[in-house]
Design a protein that fits this description.
By secondary structure, the protein is α/β, with parallel strands linked by helices. The protein has seven helices and eight strands; from the N terminus they run H-H-E-H-E-E-E-H-E-E-E-H-H-H-E. It is globular. InterPro entries: SAM-dependent_MTases_sf (IPR029063).
């Protein structure tokens, strides 16, 4: 079980006082760190439908950190779907609030969303640094402030974006878990365990659903070893076929993507 004694704790009662909600985190980032989630987002059927049908879509990136890069990159992806989308980056550290650039606004704010009611919210590599007991409170605060039909993506990635996992939520709560990784940088699916969302990372122990899922993935991966000479992408496609044959519920892949990708219903991994 992971040690969370060093983790950050926010005072969510401050929401009633109109103050930004959250704790200043390390704020590190890199160019293209969140590209796997960005690609997935604009091709997700429900996200596409929601943003396409919204008259004035608004997306908010919570905790963009010490650099504007990933928020501006996200805006570029979203504009492929909606050129008119408004994108706002929120940071709880006043020293990190930046002037607008490339059509993206940057403001002081946190999980209370600075009073906005956006259609899409993203928070990556933020709750990873919090105490696990505060994840549900942070989720609920965001969900309570979404526009009708809005969605929330909360996740974690490594520093270069080679391994990433995220949860998709709507007003009803968590909907799905996605695992995405560079096929050339991971030896087996369970290597993503160190980058699981905060709600799940400490649950990766025998008897928990997330541990069972990762074990199932590794077993299917090993049984697909005969496809390794064709490369890890082909081997992962074979692994997915085995998983489907064994009854694992997975979201379909829209085409042959460059990432190794798996999206499962939240019920598959829910604590």
């Amino acid at each position: 079980m992971a040690d969370h004694a060093h983790n950050l704790r926010a005072h969510f009662a401050a929401a009633e006082a109109g103050r930004p909600i959250g704790v200043i985190t390390r704020g590190t980032t890199n160019f293209n760190r969140l590209r796997r989630s960005d690609r997935w987002s604009i091709h997700h059927p429900e996200l596409r439908g929601m943003l396409s049908s919204s008259p004035l879509p608004h997306a908010v990136d919570v905790g963009y950190g010490a650099s504007f890069t990933t928020t501006v990159e996200w805006a570029r992806w979203l504009r492929r779907l909606r050129p008119d989308i408004r994108v706002t980056g929120l940071e709880i550290n006043p020293e990190r609030v930046l002037p607008p650039r490339e059509g993206v606004e940057f403001e002081l704010g946190g999980f209370e969303l600075a009073g906005y009611r956006p259609h899409l919210v993203r928070a990556f590599n933020v709750l990873r640094q919090y105490d696990v007991e505060q994840v549900t409170a942070a989720w609920n605060l965001v969900l309570d402030n979404l526009a009708p039909g809005g969605m929330f993506i909360e996740g974690t990635s490594d520093e270069l974006g080679r391994r990433a996992t995220w949860v998709l939520l709507d007003k009803s709560g968590p909907r799905s878990l996605t695992l995405a990784w560079d096929p050339m940088a991971v030896e087996r699916p369970s290597d993503l365990a160190e980058r699981l969302p905060k709600m799940l990372i400490h649950r990766n122990v025998p008897g928990e659903k997330i541990h069972g899922l990762l074990t199932t993935l590794d077993n299917a991966w090993e049984r697909s070893a005969g496809w390794q000479p064709y490369g890890p992408r082909v081997r992962w496609r074979q692994t997915r076929e085995l998983l489907a044959q064994e009854g694992l519920t997975m979201a379909p892949i829209r085409r042959r993507v460059r990432d190794s990708l798996l999206t499962v219903p939240w019920e598959t991994v829910a604590p």
